[in-house]
Amino acid sequence: MRTLTSILCGLILSALLIFALKLSTPEAPEGMVLIPAGDGINAFYMDAYEVTNAQYKTFIDENLHWQKGKALTSIVGDTYLSGWNGNMYPKGKANHPVVDISWFAAKAYAEWAGKDLPTEAQWERAARGSLKEKKYPWGDAKPRKRANYDRYTRSTSFRNPPTKEVGSYAPNEYGLYDMAGNAEEWCLEQLDVDDIHGRYHRMRGGSWFSDAKDIQVAKRSQHPVNGGMGTLGFRCVLPETETQSMKVAIDVAAWLSDEMFGQFDSAFYSVEEGYTAPVNLDAKLADIVLSNTGYPRTFEKELIRVLREVGPEGIEDIPDQELIIYHDLILRLWRLYLEVHFQHSEEGIFGKLDLFKERVTENIDDIMLSDGC
Fold this sequence. Notes:
With 373 residues, the protein is of the alpha+beta class. The protein has helices at residues 2-24, 53-62, 73-76, 103-112, 120-128, 248-272, 281-293, 300-310, 327-343, 349-362, 364-367; strands at residues 32-35, 44-47, 184-191, 200-204, 220-224, 232-233, 237-239.
């Protein structure tokens, strides 16, 4: 009888322990799995699947300035959503990973969803699990029927790539699907290499295009921040602690103003060296502004008007006809305005200008840095 009593007590204690563990373990957000702490990385949640076409459509339906045809080519590239018919994904591919997405667009989606892009360390931790120094998320066995890879032929179209529905293959030990193959995935970090022109970010996991070697966990690649490919998608993470990288609106505004600065200098240099006729400079500068901001260069008069309203005495002496003389000042104004433009896309022009006026007032000392105004 004692033995039976002991067994019953043991079962009850085990059940209570399991129940207590369930209570103490936070439930993962829908569609995400918990990646436990390890390798010097805090615990975090990761999307079980790559972001799909259907999910991305919901995002652009709610954020019109990221729709195809409305998003700035300067931040999404020439092939953005190239396989879509307008703002509708290809028929039958609702649950395929969205591809042809620039890093900026992926970051904007992640922010909209209340998440972020994974760091390389997070991505690798999630892909490997407890399988240290193994080639693939499942171990060292050859991929064969474990991933969508090595699908390229001469007839393959990058506008209609041979992706597969997310979750078509077995998950890894954490319950993550397609950590190898299908679509390569953007990571958060910028690649810091001096001899590469422009800004690049890391990608991991390989794609349908990659061979068996290139879908190994340790493989790394990179791509320009403002372009996508028919092989390139993403998934998101949600740290357990409240950490958030730079807001995409601030990042995009800074990047675009830096791009314009370099392009302005190049245009001035071209005139000074005689490669471009001086009479063509205004047209060149107008093209630079339009391609990077989506606004005509004449809109700069609105930015200066706001500055005159809140700026220091003497700022009204800047002549409208010679704004380009103050192009450092103009670029600082563009940077602030573009932050407002991307943070408050639902606002009309007048609403944005009112918010811009507030930002100029708050940052007037930084704006007036060293222009002798």
